[in-house]
Write a structure and sequence with these properties.
single chain; seven-stranded mixed β-sheet; globular; AB_hydrolase_fold; AB_hydrolase_1; Sigma factor SigB regulation protein RsbQ
Length: 274
C-alpha cells in the first residue's frame, strides 16, 4: 500500500502520518481541535491485529509545521476535509473506515459526502453539527457564549487553554487528563488555533447530514458539555444510515477517559456492519 514516490513522501511528511497494524482494511483516525494523533493511543492498539491503522496531524498540530498552513484553504471545514482526501489519494486508500473525534466528525462527513465510494464507514466520537442554539435546536451554547470564549482565546490564550481544558475533558477526579489536553492546546500554533476555533464553533453543518450516505456510528458520552446528548441524537437522527451508541463516559474525550468503552462501541459496530 505504501510506496516511496515523491508525492507519498511529501504527504507523509506534511501531515506526520504514521502507520500501525497488520490488517488489510484501513482505519484512518482523525483528531479533534487542538489535539494530535497521540490522543488515539488508548484506542488504536485494539485494532492493530485486524486493520491497517493510519494516523496523522492537521497542519499546525502535533509535529506538523505551520509553514504549510493556508488561511484561505482552512477558512472552512472543507479545507480539512480536503486534507483527509489528499491523504487518501496519495496513499491510495480505499474502503476506508474513518474515525473522527469532535470537529473531525463533521470534517469526515464532508470528505465522505465528496467521495462516498472511498469510505466504508464513518465513526463519529462526540460530534456536533452546530454548537450554537438555534430555535428548537439545542447546540449547547448561546452565540454570546461562543463570542466570549473566542475573545478570551484572543486575549489570553494560556488562560483560555487552562480554563477550557478541564471543562472539555470533564473527569475532575483525573486531573492528569485535563492537564494533557491543556498542554496539547498550548502546543498548537496560535494562528492556526484561532482560525480553527472560529471555523469550528461558528460552523453549521446541519444541512450536510442528510447528504451523507456512508454508514455511520455516533458515539455519545452520557455527559458532555461541548456536545450534549441532544446534539448526538440530532446528528444520528439526520444521517440516513446511522447508528447511535451512548456510552457511560463523561467529558468530550472518551477515547482518553473511557477508552475501553470507546473500543467496545467501535468494535461492536464494525462486527455488526462489516
Amino acid at each position: 500500500m505504501i510506496h516511496s514516490n515523491p508525492l507519498q513522501k511529501s504527504i507523509i511528511d506534511r501531515y506526520n502520518i504514521t502507520f500501525h497494524g497488520q490488517g488489510e482494511q484501513v482505519i484512518l483516525f482523525a483528531h479533534g481541535f487542538g489535539c494530535d494523533q497521540n490522543m488515539w493511543r488508548y484506542v488504536a492498539p485494539a485494532f492493530e491485529q485486524d486493520y491497517k491503522l493510519v494516523m496523522f496531524d492537521y497542519i499546525g498540530h502535533g509535529r506538523t509545521s505551520p509553514e504549510h498552513y493556508n488561511r484561505d484553504r482552512y477558512a472552512s471545514l472543507q479545507g480539512y476535509a480536503q486534507d483527509i482526501l489528499d491523504i487518501c489519494h496519495a496513499l491510495e486508500l480505499d474502503n476506508v473506515i474513518l474515525v473522527g473525534h469532535s470537529v473531525s466528525s463533521m470534517i469526515g462527513a464532508l470528505a465522505c459526502i465528496q467521495e462516498p465510494d472511498r469510505f466504508a464507514r464513518l465513526i463519529m466520537v462526540g460530534p456536533s453539527a452546530c454548537y450554537i442554539n438555534d430555535g428548537a435546536y439545542v447546540g449547547g451554547f448561546e452565540r454570546q457564549d461562543i463570542e466570549s470564549l473566542l475573545e478570551m482565546m484572543d486575549g489570553n490564550f494560556l488562560g483560555w487553554a487552562n480554563a477550557l481544558g478541564p471543562t472539555i475533558m470533564g473527569n475532575g477526579d483525573r486531573p492528569e487528563l485535563s492537564q494533557e489536553l491543556t498542554e496539547s492546546f498550548c502546543k498548537t500554533d496560535l494562528d492556526v488555533a484561532q482560525q480553527f476555533a472560529r471555523v469550528t464553533f461558528y460552523g453549521d453543518n446541519r444541512s450536510d447530514l442528510p447528504k451523507l450516505r456512508t454508514p455511520s456510528l455516533v458515539i455519545q458520552s452520557l455527559e458532555d458539555v461541548i456536545a450534549p446528548v441532544e446534539v448526538g441524537e440530532y446528528v444520528a437522527k439526520n444521517i440516513p444510515n446511522s447508528s447511535f451508541r451512548m456510552i457511560s463516559a463523561t467529558g468530550h474525550c472518551p477515547h482518553l477517559s473511557a477508552p475501553t468503552e470507546t473500543v467496545e462501541a467501535i468494535r461492536e459496530y464494525l462486527s455488526r456492519t462489516n
